[in-house]
Amino acid sequence: MSSSTTQRRVHFSEVEIGQKFFDLISAEYFVKQSDDTAVMVSGIGDGVTADEFEPDDVVRIED
Fold this sequence. Notes:
Blueprint: E1 7-11, E2 20-23, E3 28-32, E4 37-40, E5 50-52, E6 58-62
Antiparallel strand pairs: 1-6, 2-3, 2-6, 3-4, 4-5
């Protein structure tokens, strides 16, 4: 039996603080830090420098 991860698109405002998500625009993974910021944890991201997001930005999370 194989297990597969389901991905779904949500708005940034629906992501929980501390949850990892995939940004469709930058094609990188981030972790949400506050209601309007997240830090990149893949690619060139250092996991420290915050990027701003709008509440209605569409991102992808795994269930």
